[in-house]
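Repro:
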Amino acid sequence: MEASRSEISAADESEEVTYTSLKFSQTPPRAKAPQEKKVPHLWTAVLKGLAIGFGTLSIFLAIVLIWKMSDCHPHCPQQWMAYRGSCYFFSKEKKDWNSSQESCRAQGAHLLVISDTLEMDLFKRIQAECFWIGLRNSTSSGWIWEDGSVLSDARVHSNSHVQNCAVLMKHQFRASSCEVSAPWICEKALR
């Protein structure tokens, strides 16, 4: 039982094995250099830290500013009006000049002293009948303000020599008897 050579060679030919060579890439994907990875993360951390720091600082400054404004910012008492560093109170009740002066002093103020044209311009806008102001006639010195300064560059309209106290009436100074009852204007510095 000997097989012929031709049969063996045919069998060899039919059972021929084909080999294929497969190559798998063993190289890992290109990794970034260690510095390249750290730089973006470092900048992100720095920017986050700066944002938090500035946010905290902003909140702190806002709180300090609000606190300073509420505690230390000069202000006028309720029912007083602020203008150029002073507070003004317009009474609704009527008293004589001396009682009006006492009422202002009880509030840590004095009757209105108009010190310049800007302040006079403010009171010219008031079209009320009349208000006591801190201006009084002294027989020796003429018209004197409560702060001791002499009235200058203005005239007090008077009808009689017994009118020794002044009212502000329709943006003018008018002399009046000190016993007349009238509303008054108090003035004091902002605090």
